[in-house]
Design goal:
Radius of gyration: 21 Å
CATH class of the largest domain: Alpha Beta
Order of helices and strands: EEEHEEHEHHHEHEEEHEEEEHH
Bound molecules: adenosine-5'-triphosphate, magnesium ion
Structural class: alpha/beta
Shape: globular
CATH topology of the largest domain: Rossmann fold
Strand content: 25-35%
Strand order of the largest sheet: 6-7-8-3-9-10
């Protein structure tokens, strides 16, 4: 642990993020992006899952004080996001979805600027902290490289580094794995898992597998409303009996009934093996229920049950649906 690291709230202390009845209507377009959202989060990694336009980024902007909600209240480590924005900013690190950084600057310069902005005035202390953060996110070797010469994964890690430079106890990261290759995603998942042991992390994604094993608590939101709140295991449990395995003839796939969605497919003999989600009654003959659905499949089954088949197009369909 670094000299900056604070132990997380001891057991019995107040929850770290409290959201009570938060709604937000954007004036431009009049979209109700958040509709009476209430969530209470404790320490560790919390996954915020939802399709495009669900309201994930809007909620994060409220929690990072960038957006004043139309109604409701939210507190981060006890500080109110509207009444005490400075106190909130001190305890929160934020990686925005659109993080780009200054392209011609060098990695180290970006972090130095962020550290100065967050009040680390002592040059030696600043340099030490930057070394620490670079090491933490695995960018020490490219510290002198220009931002525009980083890979997508490195740029996202720089985004995490800039969010961590003032060593906040709360980290809010918006779709941190978009555009990363599978190896980088795995590395990223490990980094977030490590960071989550000492902090509160709120992570949004629509790629379910990115939540990883470190995530014990999550919510599914859609059209500004919380549809599910619980552990990934509970979401999987709910999907039992709604995920199926079937081998069908090639022309049969196009004739699947409404309410049945294909999660993945691969050729098998003269037919195709399909992973399907939907109600048992609607399944083609010979389809067998999958004992242990993956989290991705569970999410898709859940969204389909909630009447949101569009979520399936929006999500990344991996090979085995895991
Ligand atoms: N600045 C804005 N002005 C007007 N409407 C907005 C603005 N930002 C978002 N919206 C609308 O609010 C709704 C929620 O958007 P938000 O960006 O919070 O969704 P999201 O869950 O982050 O989606 P994505 O997965 O695509 O990032 C959408 O209907 C969106 O079009
Ligand atoms: Mg977003």
């Amino acid at each position: 642990m670094s000299e900056h690291a604070r132990p997380l709230a001891a057991a019995g202390e107040r929850p770290t993020i409290e959201i009570e009845g938060v709604s937000h209507v954007y004036r431009r377009g009049g979209v109700r992006a958040l509709d009476d959202v209430s969530l209470t989060l404790g320490p560790g990694l919390f996954g915020l899952l939802g399709p495009n336009g669900a309201g994930k980024s809007t909620l994060m902007r409220v929690l990072t004080t960038l957006l004043v909600p139309t109604s409701g209240r939210a507190r981060v480590m006890g500080a109110d996001v509207v009444a005490q924005p400075e106190a909130v900013r001190r305890v929160v690190g934020y990686l925005p979805q659109e993080f780009g950084a200054w392209r011609i600057a060098r990695v180290r310069e970006v972090l130095d600027m962020m550290a100065r902005l967050s009040g680390l005035d002592d040059a030696a202390a600043r340099a030490r902290r930057i070394d620490e953060v670079l090491e933490l996110v695995g960018l020490a070797e490219v510290a002198r490289r220009r931002v525009k010469a980083l890979s997508g994964g490195m740029l996202r890690r720089l985004g995490v580094a800039q969010a961590l430079v003032h060593d906040p106890p709360v980290l809010i990261v918006d779709e941190p794995t978009v555009g990363l290759d599978p190896a980088e995603r795995i590395r990223f998942r490990r980094l977030v898992g490590d960071l989550g042991r000492e902090r509160v992390i709120l992570l949004s994604t629509h790629i379910v597998s990115d939540l990883g094993d470190a995530c014990a608590d999550m919510a599914v939101i859609d059209r500004g409303r919380v549809l599910f709140r619980g552990s990934p295991r509970e979401l999987v449990r709910r999907a039992r009996g709604r995920v199926f395995d079937a081998v069908v003839a090639v022309d049969q796939e196009a004739r699947l009934p409404e309410g049945v969605e294909v999660v993945s497919r691969r050729p098998e003999g003269v037919g195709i093996r399909l992973r399907l989600v939907g109600a048992g009654e609607a399944m083609p003959a010979g389809a067998t229920p999958v004992e242990e659905p993956g989290l991705e499949e569970a999410y898709l089954a859940f969204m389909l049950e909630a009447g949101r088949s569009a979520a399936i197009e929006a999500s990344d369909l991996g090979g085995g649906g895991r």
